[in-house]
Amino acid sequence: MKILIVMGGFFPGQKYGGPPVSVNNFCSLFREDECYIVTKNHDKDESVPYEGIDSGIWTKRDNCYVKYVSDESYKKSEFEKVILEIKPDVLYLQGLFQSCVLPCLELAKQYSLKVVLAPRGELCAGALKKKYKKIPYIAYLRMKNLVRNIAYQSTSEEESAAIIKYLKADSEKIHFLTNIPSIPEKQYIHELKKSGEGKFVFVSRIHPKKNLISAIEYMKDIKGKVVFDIYGPIEDEEYWKQCNQKIHELPQNITVNYCGLVNHEKVHEIFSLYNAFLFPTFSENYGHVIAEALSVGTAVIISDQTPWSDINEAKAGWAIPLDNREKFVEAIQSVIDQKPDDNQKQIKAVEKYINNKVNLKEIRQEYKKAFDL
Questions:
Q1: Which contiguous run of DSSP H or E holds residue 106?
Q2: Which of 200, 44, 173 has its CA nearest to residue 116?
């Protein structure tokens, strides 16, 4: 089977967030099929093409073929050329409001292609801010019969309800498909923790939605020796300035470091160096970084606005309401106070939780049903 994926950004880009991770993991799960990706030849908010990658030709990766194209070539005529060249069985679209979606839906209708569209959270309440632009666009898609006969990937009940509400989709065309997590290629061993010390990490875009500033503020009341490392692209310079102001107000027992961008191939190794991932995000459609931390035994201290809130019962971390600052501080302090034996017990609880939560065979079967593979 041939699967064509058209999306705005893919690896080696570091600034496109979760969709490249989702798609890369999809390609790994379906590596016995043929996955083709058409994407832009540069990172988000940049214009310089990726170094060492030729534009306009197919590049072979370990799990897929990728065609990186310039902004000028990222248009309907290029997508049509690829469709005629590879003759895909399925067109897999990422997001609803991306510039590639309308021309791809038109081509799918023209060439009678099966389409699976993953809104990637773009229809959820917080994402529909500019309704005066987005609602007319959705109405146009419906009027032109471009979304009536396609299948949808949903990752939550909220997203399924939004697909029905805005796109008037039949419920039987909506497939609940969890995102595919990144699985580490090897087992990572955590160094022995010392009581009274803690190493915490934040890995995400530096953007108000990810709520780094609250993570920094929680540290004000913490006792013990703390290292808090921050990784991720700075998307909002003014917000980053506010974060830095808060960092400078912290007591001397708290050391905060900005460590720059993370190469996704190194993300598991990085998470394994820390006692906990601190991530009080305002919302996550899935939260790949949460899965990546858990997959190497690193506990998470997160908001309850993600699909991972059942970690509380499993003692794999803490999922806390955002208005409960005291609970966040308690969770951080409890990690610092952990003795080595208690820390090792929590690592084992995290590993047990993620192994029970993620069954790749079952996930693959659900995707095969949706894609009719």
A1: helix 101-110
A2: 173
For domain 2-180+360-371, which architecture applies?
3-Layer(aba) Sandwich (3.40)
Q: What span, in angstroms and rounded, lies between the C-alpha atoms of 46 and 13?
A: 10
Contacting residues for 294 by C-beta, under 8 A, at least 6 apart: 300, 308, 311, 316, 317, 350, 353, 354, 357
- pLDDT value, residue 126: 61
How far apart CA 179 and CA 26 sit, in angstroms, is 8
Query: In this structure, what are the phi and psi dihedrals at residue 218, rounded to the nearest 5 degrees?
Result: -60, -30
Round to whole Å and give the CA distance between 198 and 210. Answer: 22
Is the distance from CB of 56 to CB of 64 less than 8 angstroms? no
* Interval 259-278 mean pLDDT: 97
Q: Token digits for 241?
A: 């300035």
pTM, entire model: 0.86
Residue type at position 147: V
Q: What is the pLDDT of residues 96-108, one digit of tens each?
A: 999 999 999 999 9
Q: Where are the domains of the chain?
A: 2-180+360-371, 197-357
Tens digits of per-residue pLDDT, 142-161?
999 999 999 999 988 889 99
Lowest-confidence region among 60-64, 101-105, 210-214, 283-287 = 283-287
Homologous superfamily of the 197-357 domain (CATH): Glycogen Phosphorylase B; (3.40.50.2000)
Report the DSSP pairing between strands 299-303 and 276-279: parallel
Q: Where are the beta strands (DSSP E) in the chain?
A: 2-6, 34-40, 58-60, 65-69, 90-94, 114-118, 151-154, 174-176, 197-203, 225-231, 254-258, 276-279, 299-303, 317-320
* Structure token pair of residue 364: 């693959």
Query: How wide is the angle at C-alpha 23 spanned by C-alphas 299 and 363, nearest 5°?
Result: 65
